[in-house]
Design a protein that fits this description.
The complex is a heterotetramer of chains A (about 190), B (about 450), C (about 950) and D (about 170). Chain A has helices spanning about 1-30, 45-50, 55-60, 60-65, 75-80, 90-100, 120-125, 130-135, 150-160, 175-180. Chain A has about 190 residues and is mainly alpha-helical. Chain A has a domain at about 45-70 and about 105-185. With about 450 residues, chain B is mainly α. Helix content of chain B is about 70%, strand content about 0%. Chain B has helices at about 15-20, 20-25, 30-55, 70-95, 105-125, 155-185, 190-200, 205-240, 250-280, 285-320, 320-330, 335-350, 355-360, 360-390, 405-425, 435-445. In chain B, helix 9 (about 250-280) packs antiparallel against helix 10 (about 285-320) and helix 11 (about 320-330) packs across helix 12. The two termini of chain B are about 20 Å apart. Classes of the chains: A mainly alpha (about 190), B mainly alpha (about 450), C alpha/beta (about 950), D alpha+beta (about 170). Chains in contact: A-B, A-C, B-C, B-D, C-D. Chains B and D meet through helix 1, helix 6, helix 7, helix 8 and helix 16 of B and strand 2, helix 2, helix 3 and helix 4 of D.
Chain lengths: ~190, ~450, ~950, ~170
């Protein structure tokens, strides 16, 4: 009898474990969380955004105006690096690329499937801090995908946050949260 | 009232075992091999065509912007309908204690399983992206999670069909366990011993188990009976809950269920007539069985006819011009010929079964059963296609013509069905020995107290 | 900024998506393969594409371009810029805006600043953006059929021209009507530079008779500017002015202005042979044979003069015209001078000259004179022409006696064509110097005197093409580019005439380029005396059927034959795509024992054509209507051998017989049933009743109950209303939607199977007798039902309702059961039966790198097996809301304009917020004419219609 | 543990029934009776209680119903409320078909599972098969000889009296 109880318990425990593992794993499907590729130039966000406190939007100016934040053009780098650390081997690579007229093959870290429309400016306007989605970039020596970037993850934020702080847009009452952020499918899928 | 015996030839109990277990030892006959090759060919063709369709797109079918379903869902409803007779024979007649079901319930249930299998193919392959078919199940996912739409009749279908298939399979298998044990104990070849040993799960004929077993069968029958009604009710709701004239009809649930029983019994007749011949089971599947089935066909056929009339009356009485047009168009529209086939096959033909000579003649019965099968396929086609092809806005009215892929896929499912059935006939007990044996015993010692079946 | 900068713009995040790269990445994330090969991939194909790529990523697409309204410092990836330009789809020269996204023009819309066109754009104009990305365009100049460099070409042609001049040979520039004043000036200068050079204007479909008739009647050899906006009564004689005649967008805009139901609603009477778009909109339509045009006009003229002399008349039309004298307009599309003279006499008698017929600010379109062309062909055949420069013409295809032209062409020693492809004519010439697409070049236009318009390039030439003007400048030895030439012309000729307040010419120029259009002060139109001689009678035609030739709204004269969007655009009346056919009246067809689709020989003593029969209600008895513009053989993969060339019929339009061949073909029609079956789908009434009761024809409404509480409508509630009285059925919305929403082209076979993908369709219904039915057009797209039947049945929640009242379709969730489409009472859902992108079976627009550049990057290209439908341009709604949000202000009504609404020349479509009481759409919801189609189903659409009111 | 059984084999169900009654009448505990088919009256003869599988069905069905309704209600009303065709978020009526199917499914499967567990039937089950012909045409009555209180000879006599085909004693190692 004891044996039966033991076996039964073990069986039940195994089943629960398997189910929870399946649920756990299924949450990660399609997510590249933790992706941290080597970049052609060892650019450090920690040095620039962390130590030197360069605002994100200085380089990623596209985020304020349009859909894409964009990797900054090399001439933005050269704004400073034509004077600073000119001889560092990484900066030499950058300059060579400019001289040879060859684009730098940055590897894209944060990728959304194309059927999800994401507009950076929309979120920047709503005062969503960059770190909310991109993680503590200012501490990353090499860029890493910190968040899962799955639909469930997007949705959890849209569910929980007042998407646009109401006090800032009193007069926009009807375009507020529900209408602008919100949970409608066609906010992102079209 | 004294009935003629349900089985002929007064076999002993031992003889029953011997007759039913014959495929264990004997080689398949020529008829079986020929039939199997035909079925397999059709199946392989079907597999090829479905592969082509899935690789290329639903465009390989003749559907268009107006007619989104035609052969696919017609076949689906047709096959689900076929399935219903098996459940009806094994479950409902069990509850009604009808002894004549005993020799035919196994085969009828097998028919159910295979028909539902054929039916289940269509909802999957009719999808534009069948590889994502699993999205119809509510499971936790990374999308929020995003669940499913429990208001959609198509989702009800998913649950109804999968439940129906599962419960039918369980019922069939459980009903087979004692006979599988017989097979196990009669097996000579190694693989037979292993397989039947595995399948018979240690059945030893204990009466304590028999006692529970009977209760289980009754409970399963009790569950299967409302289930079978619910399945075709839900299938009919695919149409009944829509807004399309010709689909949006409250009569559909009973109409579909009766239609399903009608078509199912016709298919049972077809199969039994063939099986008893091919498997030499004339003693067990007798004229009395077939006549009983024929009477069911006659009854349900008449009810179906009544349903057709009611439908026409309702459309006239509704006062809705769209409804009236839909039915007018069914009868005298460009697809009027399908309506004629439907009425001829389903309403007129079964009426010949009033004549005893016709319903006790194997040949006429066989022909009528085939005609009814055809008619019932057309019934679904008429309902689905002719309602769609001319609905509300005449600007969208369109015509439909099936492609070879669609026709081939239908033939392919017949291939699947018969392949499964023929394999079943070879490797599993076609007749429920444990249910027929009491009848045989009774025939041998008729004086005793009768046992129930 | 230098080119290096541009490279880096390209290199940024975008370059990452190149195909080779995707392959590598897909190994890393195998589950994403299928996901990445859609929108971004397609969008960015452009960036890896040769010439376009570099220009595309420039901070400004082209150095000198000045953006409309927004002046960006630089192109922001993912943000569109709009540039004003001018359409070159036909000579109407509508003012356009080109939407340029990441350096690629992806959408063409009408320029609302344009006084003539007021933001409308026709189907052809909007489809021109696709012809920019036509793979058949020549990528390099050709010399004797071989690719050459421009230097070599210039050298060779320069030498040839010099030789001809030395020989004293004749040089002719044969062009279509040139609406550009600068180009005309350039051609004049060119002809003066080369002795014995002259310019001949040839229009395949000409208005030659009008020009001559006006010369004879009023002494002005010009095409008048017809003022439909001033006419209270329009009488048309085989003039399809809403569809194809002269300037359809302008005429549609003007015509519909007073077609709103009111006491002074314009009345329209049309006499015509085939059922045209214009005739289908007429309040009264009288079928006549082409040969009856003259007699009909003559009768009217006589009746009117009777009325004038006080004798009275029983002719209804004449009475009507007389009642509206001075504010009526009689137009004829006939190319017979005598008919036009009678029409002139009528307009003069009615006092319309100087009012609705403006001969002082004349139209500069359709300047071709047929006789001159005939003379030229004779000269060529006599070997008198030494040099022939073909500019924008294709006579080997569209000259009625093309054989004679070709034989003449063979006798011309030096022949040059500016054609952008190897068409029927340019494949026979010595040198092909491909002209740039108008979106790649500078130009100007003056469709009507004083109404100027500028064309600015919105991207650098994709290929090594050069604008024709540039070539001509080079060959005449002028060392200026055409931009400078144009600017100089404007400085000297236009600037002094302008009345606006400008600081300098530069300021004037910048503003003109920015606006795209410029109006010079107009002359006051004057009445003129009719001085022609009216013919006494017209000849009776020989026995047999008469052929009525017409242009189709999509292909027009055939120059756009390789544009698959236009090929698949259903004819607004017949709804047939990808074909021309012989339209016969039902009576004639049954008398001849013909059914739709029967292939027949249409022949007389001179010509014979093999065409399928189409049975056209309203077709005049004993006439056959055949569309021009088909049967091209050298236009490209999409248009080659589609239909039959009917140009040879022009000189011999009478005495035809129809013979059965016994073959039958399926015509690719998007609608095959033509009656409403008595259903209240299009509600209509007549003006008299409407004036008594604004809800006339729309009295019956269902009392709609609901079993449960409705979902709250708090925020925005988008809605649309469509005025069936304004809608002419011109089908511009179809192309606009197709371009905006990446709607695929599926080809003739698939349309025959009723699988066209257009999100908006134009339903056309006939009512009344089939000899002359009444017609209605109804735009039908997703009605965004509040109680959407499609939503309830989707098992996977792929179509659900949004909080702002839209019926959303989520492609990436769709598994493709098609249940939603079945359950849609309006049948507006479209299923992707196949993969339409990157599939060799569908080699139309989305199967080549070039073709995919026209795709809107904000919209997913739908994959196989998913459902799609009108989203009410959700991307535009999102963009509009975002814009307002960024600027911290509420949205204004009319700020968001959906694609079909924007392009509608008749302004029949209104989109807006139903929750905003003052919005136009909310107001229209309370109009007496407002109704929902299939209201009794209680599906509660947000798209509604306004009843059609006929003025009869 | 070693168990000793006495097995009496019959070919006739009437004899079997009489034997069982007789054995029980003299106080023998019937270990089990093995039959090829259901023998009417045997349950009473053996004094078997009615099976309680129905209770399992009812409870499992109820659980299924509750789970199905709860899942549908929770997903549609609480977890992600979506406007589908203007229908109320809690479309109870529309939830019934699925709830019914799940009720039947869980009820049926649980009953079958309970049956297999209770009867110790599963692949590889070590249940003793006393005679290969039990699944054909023979019947067997099995008495377990647990202790001295059972007199094998007395039982054997009853068997022979009732017309048994064969009586044997078996020891089974369990």
């Amino acid at each position: 009898m004891l044996r039966k109880v033991f076996i039964g318990t073990a069986l039940l425990a195994t089943i629960i474990l398997i189910i929870s593992l399946i649920i756990q794993e299924s949450r990660r499907v399609g997510s590249n969380q933790g992706y941290e590729p080597d970049q052609p130039i060892a650019y450090s966000h920690k040095v620039h955004a962390g130590d030197n406190k360069i605002p994100c939007l200085y380089c990623h100016f596209g985020a304020e105006q349009g859909r894409h934040a964009g990797i900054p053009p090399a001439n933005v780098c050269m704004n400073c690096h034509s004077k600073i650390k000119k001889d560092s081997p990484e900066i030499v690579k950058l300059r060579e690329a400019i001289d040879k007229n060859q684009p730098i093959d940055w590897i894209k870290v944060h990728r959304l499937p194309d059927f999800a429309y994401f507009n950076h400016s929309q979120h920047v306007t709503a005062n969503v801090p960059c770190q909310e989605c991109h993680g503590p970039v200012e501490t990353m020596t090499r860029m890493r995908q910190d968040q899962p970037l799955t639909m469930g993850w997007c949705i959890s934020c849209h569910r929980e946050r007042g998407i646009m702080p109401p006090e800032e847009h009193q007069d926009l009452n009807r375009d507020k949260t529900k209408a602008i952020g919100g949970m409608d499918c066609a906010k992102c899928h079209y | 009232m004294i009935h003629p015996p349900l089985i002929d030839g007064r076999p002993t109990v031992q003889q029953v075992t011997k007759d039913i277990c014959r495929p264990l030892h004997a080689r398949p006959g020529l008829a079986w091999i020929a039939a199997f090759l035909c079925a397999l060919t059709a199946l392989l063709m079907g597999v090829g065509l479905v592969t082509y369709e899935i690789r290329t797109g639903i465009g390989t079918w003749g559907l268009n912007k107006t007619i989104g379903w035609a052969f696919d869902i017609t076949n689906f409803v047709f096959w689900v309908g076929i399935g219903h007779a098996g459940t009806l024979i094994s479950a409902i007649l069990l509850l009604f204690r009808q002894k004549w079901r005993t020799s035919i319930n196994r085969a009828a249930e097998a028919m159910t399983i295979f028909a539902v299998l054929c039916a289940a193919v269509f909802p999957v392959i009719h999808m534009g992206r069948p590889w994502l078919a699993f999205w119809v199940f509510p499971y936790p996912n990374t999308r929020g999670p995003l669940w499913v739409n429990f208001r959609s009749p198509l989702l009800w279908d998913v649950f109804a069909i999968s439940t129906y298939f599962t419960i039918s399979l369980v019922f069939w298998y459980i009903g087979m366990i004692p006979d599988l044990a017989t097979f196990r104990d009669r097996a000579e070849k190694k693989w037979q011993k292993v397989v039947y040993g595995f399948l018979s799960v240690g059945w030893n004929g204990s009466n304590r188990t028999w006692s529970r077993y009977e209760t289980l069968c009754l409970i399963l029958a009790g569950l299967a009976t409302p289930l079978v009604v619910s399945v075709h009710t839900i299938v009919s709701m695919d149409f009944a809950t829509s807004v399309i004239p010709g689909w949006h009809t409250t009569i559909f649930p009973p109409y579909f269920v009766v239609g399903a029983v009608f078509s199912g019994f016709a298919m049972v007749t077809t199969l039994l007539i063939v099986t008893r011949k091919v498997m030499n089971l004339e003693n067990y599947i007798t004229m009395r069985h077939l006549e009983a089935v024929a009477k069911v066909i006659l009854t349900t056929g008449s009810i179906v006819g009544l349903a057709y009339l009611t439908e026409l009356f309702t459309s006239w009485y509704s006062g809705s011009s769209y409804e009236q047009f839909a039915f007018k168009n069914r009868i005298i529209g460009p697809y009027g010929w399908t309506y004629v086939i439907m009425v001829t096959c389903n309403v007129i033909t079964p009426q010949f079964l009033w004549v005893k000579k016709i319903r006790t003649n194997i040949v006429t019965l066989f022909i009528i059963s085939i005609i009814v099968n055809i008619g019932m396929w057309f019934e679904r086609f008429v309902i689905i296609m002719t309602s769609l092809h001319r609905d509300y806005l005449p600007s969208s009215w369109a015509m439909y013509r099936p492609t070879f892929v669609e026709v081939g896929t239908l033939i392919g499912t017949f291939g699947l069905f018969f392949t499964c059935f023929l394999i079943f006939a070879r490797v599993l007990p076609v007749i429920a020995m444990w249910e027929v044996k009491p009848l045989a015993a009774e025939l041998i010692s008729p004086h005793r107290e009768s046992s129930h079946g | 900024m230098n080119s290096d900068d541009k490279k880096y713009w390209k290199g940024l995040e975008e370059l990452r998506e190149e195909p080779q790269f995707l392959e590598v990445r897909s190994k890393e994330f195998p589950e994403e393969i299928s996901q990445t090969t859609r929108r971004n991939f397609l969008k960015l194909m452009g960036f890896s594409f040769t010439g376009a790529a570099l220009a595309a990523c420039a901070r400004m697409p082209v150095e000198k371009a000045i953006p409309f309204l927004i002046k960006p410092e630089e192109v922001v990836p993912g943000v569109a810029n709009w540039y004003a330009t001018t359409c070159a789809g036909c000579t109407a020269s509508c003012g356009l805006l080109a939407k340029v996204r990441d350096g690629r023009p992806i959408k063409i819309e009408g320029n609302a600043e344009s006084p003539l066109f007021q933001g409308g754009a026709c189907a052809v104009g909007q489809a021109t953006v696709l012809s920019l990305y036509d793979d058949e365009r020549l990528k390099k100049p050709l010399w004797l059929g071989n690719a050459a460099s421009w230097e070599e070409i210039d050298q060779s042609i320069g030498k040839e021209l010099k030789d001809i001049v030395n020989r004293g040979g004749k040089i002719v520039i044969l062009s279509g009507t040139i609406v550009s004043p600068t180009t005309r000036a350039l051609l004049n200068e060119w002809c003066q530079t080369f002795t014995n050079a002259r310019h001949v204007v040839y229009d395949a479909v000409s208005a030659s008779a009008i020009l001559s008739a006006n010369e004879k009647s009023f002494g002005v050899k010009a095409l008048p500017h017809y003022r439909f906006d001033l006419a209270k009564l329009v009488v048309g004689l085989n003039a399809d002015f809403l569809g194809t005649w002269i300037s359809p967008v302008e005429f549609t805009r003007a015509y519909t202005q007073h077609r709103m139901p009111s006491h002074d609603m314009t009345r329209h009477i049309q006499f015509e042979s085939g059922m045209s778009l214009t005739g289908s909109n007429a309040d009264r339509r009288i079928p006549i044979n082409p040969s009856e045009e003259g007699p009909t006009a003559l009768t009217l003229l006589k009746e009117i003069s009777n009325l004038k002399s006080g004798a009275g008349s029983s002719n209804e039309t004449a009475q009507d015209l007389w009642k509206h004298r001075g504010e009526s307009l009689v137009v004829s599309g006939s190319n017979h001078v005598d008919v036009q003279i009678v029409v002139n006499a009528m307009n003069a008698l009615l006092g319309n000259i100087g009012k609705t017929v403006d001969l002082d600010n004349v139209s500069l379109q359709k300047q071709g004179v047929d006789d001159e062309m005939n003379r030229l062909v004779d000269e060529m055949n006599r070997g008198e022409i030494q040099g022939l420069i073909l500019y924008g013409v294709n006579p080997a295809y569209d000259f009625p006696d093309s054989d004679r032209f070709i034989s003449g062409l063979k006798k011309v020693p030096c022949s040059v064509s500016f054609s952008d492809r190897l068409d029927e004519t340019s494949s026979l010439v010595q040198a092909v110097c491909p002209d740039a697409h108008f979106l790649e070049s500078w130009n100007d236009a003056e469709p009507v005197q004083g109404a100027l318009s500028l064309t600015q390039p919105v991207l650098r030439p994709l290929f090594a093409t050069r604008s024709a003007q540039e070539s001509l400048l080079t060959w005449m030895g002028k060392n200026v580019d055409y931009y400078t030439y144009l600017r100089d012309y404007w400085r000297e000729k236009i600037y002094p005439l302008s009345t606006g307040l400008y600081l300098t010419f530069d300021n004037f120029w910048d503003l003109s380029v920015q606006n795209g259009v410029l109006s010079l002060p107009a002359q006051t139109p004057t009445e003129r005396n009719f001085s022609g001689s009216v013919p006494i009678a017209f000849q009776n035609p020989p026995k047999g059927l008469e052929v009525h030739l017409y242009e189709k709204i999509g292909l027009r004269d055939g120059r756009h034959a390789n544009n698959p969007w236009l090929q698949e655009l259903p004819d607004p009346v017949t709804k047939i795509t990808w074909d021309n056919y012989a339209a016969l009246s039902p009576k004639t067809a049954s008398a001849l024992g013909l059914e739709e689709g029967d292939v027949v020989l249409v022949k007389n003593d001179y010509v014979s054509l093999e065409l399928p029969v189409q049975i056209q209600p309203g077709q005049a008895a004993l006439t056959v209507s055949v569309a021009l513009g088909y049967g091209r053989t050298h236009c490209g993969k999409a248009g080659n051998n589609v239909g039959v060339n009917a140009y040879p019929l022009i000189p011999h339009p009478t005495g035809f017989r129809v013979e059965k061949t016994g073959r039958k073909v399926a015509l690719a029609a998007t609608q095959t049933h033509h009656s409403m079956e008595g259903r209240p789908i299009v509600k209509e009434t007549i003006l008299a009743e409407y004036i008594n009761n604004p809800s006339a024809g729309n009295e019956e409404h269902e009392k709609l109950l609901t079993l449960w509480e409705e979902w709250p409508k708090e925020g925005r509630a988008w809605g649309m209303s469509i005025d069936l009285n304004a809608c002419t059925g011109c089908s511009a919305c179809i192309i606009s939607c197709q371009a905006e929403n990446n709607v695929p082209v599926v080809g003739k076979d698939e349309v025959t199977r009723r699988r066209e993908m257009h999100w908006i369709r134009l339903d056309r219904y006939y009512s009344g007798p089939e000899e002359n039915p009444e017609t209605v057009h109804q735009p039908m797209m997703c009605q965004h039902c509040g109680n959407a039947p499609c939503e309830t049945v989707c098992p996977v929640l792929a179509t659900v309702h949004s909080t702002d009242g839209l019926n959303q379709q989520v492609y990436n969730r769709c598994v493709g059961t098609r249940y939603c489409a079945n359950n849609c009472p309006y049948k507006v859902r479209r299923f992707n039966w196949f993969d339409y992108a990157h599939n060799d079976q569908f080699d139309y627009t989305m199967n080549s790198e070039l073709g995919t550049m026209v795709l809107n990057p904000d919209i997913v290209v739908r994959s196989r097996g998913v459902m799609e439908k009108c989203s009410l341009c959700i991307q535009r709604i999102q963009e509009g809301k975002l814009q307002a949000k960024r600027e911290g202000r509420p949205l204004k009504d009319g700020e968001i304009r959906v694609a079909c609404e924007q392009s509608c020349p008749a302004q029949a479509i209104t989109f807006g917020d139903l929750n905003e009481k003052e919005s136009r759409v909310a107001q229209q919801n309370h109009d007496g004419r407002f109704y929902h189609v299939l209201e009794e189903l209680n599906v509660r659409p947000v798209v509604g219609y306004l009843t059609k009111v006929r003025n009869k | 543990m070693v168990k000793n059984f006495m097995v009496g084999v019959f070919s006739d169900e009437q004899k079997l029934l009489k034997t069982v009654c007789a054995l029980r009448g003299v106080g023998f505990q019937i270990h089990d009776v093995f039959t090829p088919y259901v023998v009417h009256g045997l349950d009473d003869a053996m004094g078997l209680r009615r099976s309680r599988l129905g209770v399992v069905t009812f409870l499992a069905g109820l659980t299924g119903l509750a789970l199905a309704m709860a899942l549908q209600f929770w997903t549609a009303v609480f977890d992600w409320r979506i406007n589908v065709g203007g229908k109320p978020d809690n479309s109870t009526l529309a939830f019934l078909p699925v709830a019914f199917e799940i009720t039947v499914l869980i009820g049926g499967l649980a009953t079958a599972l309970a049956f297999f567990l209770r009867s110790q039937l599963f692949p590889g089950s070590k249940l003793r098969i006393f005679n290969r012909h039990i699944t054909d045409h023979l019947f067997a009555v099995v008495l377990e000889i647990r202790d001295a209180s059972i007199n094998p000879d007395k039982a054997r006599k009853i068997f022979w009296d009732m017309g048994v085909l064969e009586v044997r004693e078996e020891s089974v190692n369990t």
